[in-house]
């Protein structure tokens, strides 16, 4: 069972991430949601509707990996199933981060099905990639207010593409993850840089 210290440490890490992301425009208004694993069976996740640039420890709740809320009186984001799908799939993963940047939102509407990133040195910031010659396919799923159905669709895709580092939801934003909050934050930063490059490439290629 996780300790209060573990909860406080993970919450502090996610609070710092929220400020960093908000200052860069990646989580406007109350958009986005963050979570971190506390132990084998429990996760801390942001309370629904909280501003990610102004989070405090009170803005997190504890939920088990089956989705049972363990913090009385608090409600998680409706997108909780998308976080739990990741934790249930891989016990080594320690954090899931969801952002709503302009670049992620635009590219998810300009492309259908998949966005290909290749030839960028920054790809090496993604876990397991050691060369700029890598090809990373970022799937784009249609947005769906039936989140359990969307999570099932993601799970089905990941079963066939276990190497993926993140995905986009059309008109919505980015999901990525890592073995720790630090690694997941690095993945967000890398993806946002790569998505910004893709937007600029399209602008300059007109």
SSE sequence, one letter per element: HEEEHEHEEHEEH
What would you give as the CATH superfamily?
Answer: Class II aldolase/adducin N-terminal domain
C-alpha termini separation = 56 Å
Tell me the major beta sheet: 8 strands, mixed
The SS-based structural class is alpha+beta
The tally of helices reads 5
Helix content: 25-40%
- By CATH reckoning, the class would read Alpha Beta
Radius of gyration: 16 Å
Mean pLDDT: 95
Total domain count: 1
Low-confidence stretches: none
- The tally of beta strands, per DSSP, is 8
Protein name: Methylthioribulose-1-phosphate dehydratase
EC number: 4.2.1.109
Organism: Hyalangium minutum
Function: Catalyzes the dehydration of methylthioribulose-1-phosphate (MTRu-1-P) into 2,3-diketo-5-methylthiopentyl-1-phosphate (DK-MTP-1-P).
Q: Can you describe this structure?
A:
Zn(2+) binds at residues 98, 100. It is built from five helices and eight strands, in the order αβββαβαββαββα. The mean pLDDT is 95. The protein has one domain (4-205): 3-Layer(aba) Sandwich (L-fuculose-1-phosphate Aldolase). The longest helix is centred in the last third of the chain and has 24 residues, at 181-204. It has an eight-stranded mixed sheet, sandwiched between helices. With 206 residues, it is α+β, with helices and mostly antiparallel strands. The radius of gyration is 16 Å and the shape is globular. Helix 3 packs across helix 5.
């Amino acid at each position: 069972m996780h300790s209060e210290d573990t909860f406080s440490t993970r919450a502090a890490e996610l609070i710092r991430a929220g400020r960093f992301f908000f200052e860069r425009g990646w989580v406007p208004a109350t958009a986005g949601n963050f979570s971190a694993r506390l132990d084998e069976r429990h996760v801390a996740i942001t309370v629904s509707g909280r501003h990610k640039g102004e989070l405090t420890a009170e803005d997190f709740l504890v939920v088990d990996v089956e989705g049972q809320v363990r913090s009385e009186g608090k409600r998680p984001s409706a997108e909780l199933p998308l976080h739990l799908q990741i934790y249930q799939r891989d016990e080594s993963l320690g954090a899931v981060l969801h952002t709503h940047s302009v670049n992620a939102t635009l590219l998810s509407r300009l492309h259908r099905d998949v966005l290909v990133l290749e030839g960028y040195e920054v790809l090496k910031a993604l876990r397991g990639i050691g060369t700029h010659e890598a090809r990373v396919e970022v799937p784009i799923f249609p947005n769906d207010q039936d989140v359990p159905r969307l999570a099932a669709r993601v799970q089905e895709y990941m079963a066939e593409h276990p190497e993926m580092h993140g995905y986009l939801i059309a008109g919505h934003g980015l999901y990525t993850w890592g073995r720790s909050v630090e690694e997941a934050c690095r993945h967000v930063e890398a993806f946002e840089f790569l998505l910004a490059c893709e937007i600029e490439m399209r602008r300059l290629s007109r």
